[in-house]
Amino acid sequence: MTMQAFQQAMCDLVASPDLCLLLVQSPDQVLGRYDLSDRDRRRLVEVVQQPGMFVNCSLYRANRLSPIYNLAPRTCFLLGDALLDEATEFWKDFKETRLQFHEEVTQFGDFLRRRIEAGFLQNSILAEVLEYELALNEFRYTPRLEVLSRLELSKTVARESKRICLHPLMRVLLFRHEPARLLELLDERRPPPHDVAEGEFWLLLDGKGEEVETKLIDPGVGRLLKAIETGTARSLSADDVEMLIEAGLTVPLT
Amino acid sequence: MTNSNESIVGQAGFGSVPTLGVGLLYNAALRDFVRSNLDAFDYLAITADLFWLDRGPGHPDRYEELEFWIETLDWVAAHRPIVSHNIGLSIGTAGSMDDAYLDQIARFHSRYKFPWHSDHLSFAQVRGASGENHSAGLAVPIPYDKEMLELITARVGLVKQKIPIPFLLENSVYFVDFPEQDMSEAEFLNQLTKSSRCGLLLDLHNLYTNARNHGFDAFTFIDQLDLTSVVEIHIAGGDEFAGMYTDSHAGPCPEPVWELLDYAISHTPNLRGLTYEFHFSYYPLMGEAGVRAQLDRARAAWARRTSQTKLL
């Protein structure tokens, strides 16, 4: 058991500079939590005092931050100095990581959504950009060809269905700021100016091809697709359903 | 230089392993590069873990392959050999092995026919009280103790049972020095390759990083190794971080790593591949020409090794 305990202690220390500090100040308080041999106790007391332990702790944080930064760079840019504070807050609730990029980013995205809803983050652009990047990530990890092939196989049966849902490789997002200009600036890591046009902009993300295509769509269509996506659409005529399916925007529910 | 009389080729069955030449570790920035620069590398090394989603042990659909990445892999596999350099085995973890992970590597091997595969001499996960996995968040080095040697020796046996091709372990970077270790790193590596019959993936940049941070001579370290066990060499770059030099794979190899390569490559009789690795975020800085320059320089070193081998 002692090797397992030693490894658990090392992991806990690497994940928490505060625990390292506590170990330096009161070793018994920290080491008493683990079933350690005397040699393991001496090792841990010594390594937390080495400069390399600070590097380990920093690398742990960098390793958890890098998938978030790589897959949601615009969100991170908008968070600016708040990024590390938000990540630290996130890690308090999500101590577990498997360093799977998709999972880490999705969980951090959900965390930010809650922080925005609770009013802790008040950047008006952040929510729009966050949803955009989370949608892109969904596409990145969706087996596109498999989805398309499954849809093709179920086409005949599905046509008999009267109900539809948004195409699984489509997303529709509402922006309150003109998205093309906004995303262009953020791609260049430039802060968006205050004069980005405001209004109701619906962005359609099409992940059916190798590259995700984005285009602005009519607000009426945007609202309709969002309602279909969330299952709140009023009943549609057979012609409308047919037209939406033909346009590749929706698929029949099987 | 420690050289056992009995060649590791005979010991571990590396004799039938093809000599591949100069390879490149695949990363997300290289999708187009590999398609348009096939002449620049003799084989592609992959971190297989990056080609799938892992929903964790016990999940009914634990692994889901990432289509976008697999497309490229399938294309390269039709043109070049693939070797797998994994990060998920966590061979030093106390407790049980992750059998499902090994099965997944075995599935990849059956598809891509790796000449060999490798992982890191460290632990990246700990087992909880009820057997569940917890990620350490980074590769934590192991203490070089007899108990650890026994554990890893047994694990290598299990790996070889499931995947009957040569298995290599890579020397780790460590930022802290565990006191009271039973043996030195070189002694541990020599004992491990002898007892488990695994090969050594000698990462020269890791060695350079350790030597620089802990103040020892990297050439002397090489002299202490049984170099007949070295099947693959890794070269990479790094940079300063939080007050120490790290193995961040930051762009080109520093000059001292090339010097270590020139020294090591002429003393590794069973070497089958030399792999250059860099972090994908450095591709915009290096560009296609920058990556090719590193591979060209590696190839020149490889050619010198080949000519020296012929003279022996």
Could you write a compact summary of the structure shown?
The complex is a heterodimer of chains A (254) and B (312). Chain A has 14 helices and 5 strands.
List keywords for this structure.
heterodimer; A: mainly alpha; two-stranded antiparallel ribbon; 14 helices; 5 strands; B: TIM Barrel; 8-stranded parallel β-barrel; two-stranded antiparallel sheet; globular
Can you walk through the features of this model?
The complex is a heterodimer of chains A (254) and B (312). With 254 residues, chain A is mainly alpha-helical. Chain A folds into 3 domains: 1-49, no CATH class; 62-141; 143-252, no CATH class. Chain A is 61% helix and 11% strand. In chain A, the strands form 2 sheets. In chain A, strands 2-3-4 form a 3-stranded antiparallel sheet, sandwiched between helices. The radius of gyration of chain A is 24 Å and the shape is elongated. With 312 residues, chain B is of the alpha/beta class. Chain B has a single domain (8-311), classed as Divalent-metal-dependent TIM barrel enzymes (TIM Barrel, Alpha-Beta Barrel). Chain B is 39% helix and 20% strand. Chain B contains 10 helices and 14 strands. The radius of gyration of chain B is 19 Å and the shape is globular. Chains A and B meet through helix 1, helix 4, helix 5 and helix 10 of A and strand 7, strand 8 and helix 5 of B.
